[in-house]
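User: I'm curious whether this sequence folds into something compact or stays loose and floppy. Could you predict its structure so I can see for myself?
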Amino acid sequence: MATLGLILAGGRARRMGGGDKALLPLGGRPMLAHVIERLRPQCIALALSANGEAGRFAAFALPVIADERPDFSGPLAGLLAGLDFSASHFPEEADVVTLPADTPFLPLDLVARLFEARREAGADIAMARSGGREHHLAALWPVSLAEALRQSLFDEDLRKVGAFAARFRLAHADWPAEPFDPFFNVNTPEDFSQAESLLKRA
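Assistant: Here's the prediction. I'll summarize afterward.
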């Protein structure tokens, strides 16, 4: 079940007023630090998907992978860059797990359960789901999908992760959304305040 963990930190955080959401201090540490702490034990290595000046993430000592397309094409562009990175740096590994940088409470068994769900269903892709809601960016992707994804991005200008995943056999790994959703993501200042409260409760 070895895999590269790709943390997607390339969004422009418009609803948070712009800037790097992942670097906001949550419980005295950058939100990204919480994600790294929970995901690192589950993967052989981690990398960040982000555009712009890579030095702003230097404190985390992780590879920072920029999109091949320079036009902020969305998370599918980050996924493609991650698949290509894995193929060139970890050629013995066949999969990449993605997770947004704004999900500080991600499950500690995320990767294992995604692999299990995919195996049991005989699927191509496994995606997390909580309370019946799909989390398109918390997913397990075969590196072999890179060329199909490149064609979708460059020839079709496809931007929606769910639309791309729907082209393949898709399995789901389910988590309860109570007492709180482990895939709670921070999109607004109100979400950030809620994340602070959840962290104190945890």
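Summary: The longest helix spans residues 75-89. The domain at 4-201 is CATH 3.90.550.10 (Spore Coat Polysaccharide Biosynthesis Protein SpsA; Chain A).
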